[in-house]
Amino acid sequence: MRQKIVAGNWKMNKLFHEAEDLVGAIANAIDDNEPDCEVIVCTPSLYLEVAGDYSEESQIRVGAQNVSEHDSGAYTGEISAPMLSSMAIDYCIVGHSERRKYFGESDALLFQKAERLLENDISPIFCIGELLEEREANNHFNVVEEQLNNSVFKFNKDEFSNIILAYEPVWAIGTGKTATPEQAQEMHAFIRGLIAKKYDKETAENTSILYGGSCNAENAKELFSQKDVDGGLIGGASLKAKDFTKIIYSF
Ligand code: 13P
Asked: Do 159 and 206 form a contact (C-beta atoms < 8 A)?
């Protein structure tokens, strides 16, 4: 079901006591004043348990940042979807451009990861987005369409209905160079159109599509006011409780 969402992607940041403080501050802020959106923190896996403790008592929801494509076995250092499920984790980021770039994750592998998550009742927050040179070559729509065709569009309609999409233009991630609200809206509307073509209009209307890439406390309101932007996947600005809280109340 389409819902407004603000999700923080902490990436590889924060020491343990800092993580506890941050999740505590966010939980307190939203429990004092019920937000209009689902609030998710995607912490490093080491901190999922402490974030999970807060999710039992507050409205905060917890997501992982990565998952193995395997269910169990001799895969040193990996974390499986059944493990996440056993810790009551509701969401997991898949396909982030940093994993595509630094860990060579392909669309085919990302499909398998999303498949493991869905089998374990965890919603993938599936990231797509073009590189700067692809946008400059006016190829961004093709790139995003291909990413979708090679991954999440392989799911049937029921499976796809549990997926959240995040459009993250790679040139906007961590650069301070945000997509304009018009650029974000244009791509989100394009994506929703592709979903309608692949499945149907209802599925398209029910899919949450988040924007990510230098979204912050100053620009969130305008981005979130766009018709097809259902919220944000926030990196740097999710590391400060005050900024993240302001983004949560930007609808
Ligand atoms: P920034 O908000 O730091 O640009 O990061 C966005 C992102 O990668 C979220 O997944």
From this structure: no
